[in-house]
Amino acid sequence: MSLDIRFGFGNTIKYNAPKLDVKSVTSTSTIISSRVRDIILDDTHDRFDEFGGWNSIGTIFIEPTLQPVFSDVIPLIPAYPAFPNIKQYPLINEIVPIIYLADPNVTENTSAVAAYYLPPINVWNSQVHNAVPSSDITPELEDKEYPLVEAGSVRRITDQDTSIELGNYFNENNVLNNYPLLPYEGDIIYEGRYSNSIRLGSTVDNDKVYSNLWSSGADEEDFGSPIMILRNGQSNIGRNILDSTEPWVPTLENINTDKSSIYLTAGQQIPLVLSSDKSDSYASNTNNVPTVQYYPGDQILLNSGQLVFNSKDDNIVLSSNKSIHLSANTTLNFDAINQITLAAPKVYLGSSFGTEGIQLQSAVLGEELTQALLTFIQAVEAAAEAMTTNTAIIGPVATLTTAGPILKSACTNLKNTLNNKSILSNQVFVNKGSKR
Questions:
Q1: Nearest one of 348, 406, 343, 355 to 377, comparing CA atoms
Q2: Which range marks the domain in which residue 27 is found?
Q3: Single residue among 176, 198, 230 that ends a domain in this structure
Q4: Most buried residue among 18, 266, 341, 396 by CB atoms closer than 10 A?
């Protein structure tokens, strides 16, 4: 089909435009509303090869909403995504704006055009779907649940599965309880159909709006501080801001109950509940215990069922201006193929609480202790041997006379070693703890 027409973004959308015969129109400035009847998403589509193989992904087949096609014999019009870098493909029976712009043959034929589509029209104001089937093919029940958008009618999708055809496997019933996000003035929000979202928002005055967690405790000078929230999967515990089951009532993010979250803050205090709040390692300096809920500065928070940091080719580097706190409710485990190295002026094992030399006792240098004990043992063994081989005679026993000074010297050396603490570590201290 060849059309000598031009459509542009700057033209006015005419809601009451006359019916258009797309086969014969030669000139128009109208953006056409069209219903999606089919879409190519992979190579299982029967027209996959016809429209370019994998290059056909996103191609839809449409019928004008003013002239629905009620027959499978009449060919549908193909249309292509208007944006190359943003993939927002419609569901079947959603309404999309159609514009006609240059096609690949424009070099040879400057009037050559093709149909391109924009993201689906927000008929129901729903992030889940905005499908409106043709009235001639919609069962009576679905007509009631999807009322026509007319003056005075409610712009609302129902909270029941309507069984409208939306695709080959898109299950409306699985996503109807996904609530949209409540916006605040100035917010930019991107929402998927499956309760995944990105909010580019700010701290607001909770006294004037539905309160949110990231604005709690904020002062007037904090209003407008930026925050970015990436959420994947809404909470199963809370519902929406009215605690109702109506899917059109909006909800808010909750870092503690949403499935997975990333918060990038600018001074907001996020009430994240830690799985483990154990901080005994800071016992000697409780003022330095890291804070999360009441941290006054900028921070990035990640919260999910499990966090995995995997480096395929090189290192994982954790660097902090102050401390790095590791806390767990059960165990901390370290495994390495070669070695585990701790390098610091002082290393406390067990706890840092107490006085060095009393509660905190120095670890022993193994090789130094071994050498000192071996020397002492050799002297004791020599004395023992002399005592074993001596005979009962009057006067000095030569073997004991020889072994005595050796043993005495060994005792003196061991005593000096223990007194000057050269056998003790200056870096590693073990907490004596309490007997159990």
A1: 406
A2: 1-176
A3: 176
A4: 266
Look at the alpha carbons of 398, 403, 405, 406 in this order and tell me if their dihedral is positive or negative.
Answer: positive
114 and 23 housed in the same domain: yes
Q: Tokens at residue 240, please?
A: 């929406």
206 and 301 share one domain? yes
- Residue tagged 């395929």 (tokens): 312
Question: Would you mind telling me the total number of residues written for the chain in this entry?
Answer: 436
Assess whether 167 and 189 both reside in one domain: no
Q: How many domains does the chain have?
A: 3
Question: Is the domain of 141 the same as that of 253?
Answer: no
Taking alpha carbons only, the member of 74, 75, 81, 111 closest to residue 98 is: 81
Mark out the alpha helices in 88-226 (DSSP H runs): 140-145
| 341 within some domain | no
Whole-model pTM: value is 0.78
With beta carbons less than 8 A apart as the criterion, state whether 63 and 37 touch. yes
Q: What is the pLDDT of residues 71-123, one digit of tens each?
A: 666 788 999 999 999 999 999 999 999 999 988 888 888 888 899 999 999 99
Q: Choose among 82, 69, 106: nearest CA to 31.
A: 82
Condensed to tens digits (0 to 9), the pLDDT of residues 343-358 reads 888 888 888 888 887 8
